[in-house]
Specification:
- The chain is mainly beta.
- The chain has a single domain (4-118), classed as Immunoglobulin-like.
- 8% of the residues lie in helices and 44% in strands.
- It contains one helix and ten strands.
- The chain has one helix at 15-24, and strands spanning 4-6, 26-29, 33-35, 40-46, 60-67, 70-76, 90-95, 101-109, 113-116, 120-125.
- It starts with a strand and ends in a 5-residue tail after the last strand.
- The structure holds fe (ii) ion (FE2).
């Protein structure tokens, strides 16, 4: 089982340590409510405020979006699509919710491992009960 890092693991560190954690942390961006069985867009951005390098030797490889233990989306990143400068990579996902969501993103840096976002709760309105 790989270690999973999160911003909060480093929040008490120095400015340099917090910057390191910031640029590796995926952030889930979406509304707090969605409609039952309707397409719902969720964006994941890597880096709270600090851009991550995007060089040949050091870059992110993929982003996954999870609803609790269910994988709801995955994007394999092509480094060259984002240039050679530090960048906030941002990827949209579309999901069609049938239950309320507890979303977490994971992102993998080839030098610094697997990072998780904070969990975001999305209330789904109009859930039909059989
Ligand atoms: Fe990194």
């Amino acid at each position: 089982m790989p270690r999973l890092f999160s911003y909060n693991d480093f929040a008490g560190g120095s400015e340099i340590v917090r910057s390191y954690a910031d640029k590796h942390s995926p952030v889930v961006i979406c509304d707090g409510q969605a409609n039952y069985n309707q397409p719902f867009t969720v964006k994941v951005r890597i880096g709270k405020t600090v851009k991550h390098p995007n060089s040949q030797e050091h870059h992110f490889r993929y982003i996954q979006l999870w609803n609790l233990e269910t994988l709801v989306g995955e994007v394999k990143l092509k480094r060259e699509d984002y240039g050679d400068d530090p960048v906030h990579i941002e990827v949209p996902f579309s999901i069609t919710p049938k239950v309320s969501l507890r979303l977490t993103a994971l992102a993998y840096c080839n030098k610094h491992g697997l990072w998780k976002s904070e969990e975001i709760f999305v209330k789904v309105l109009g859930i039909e009960v059989d």
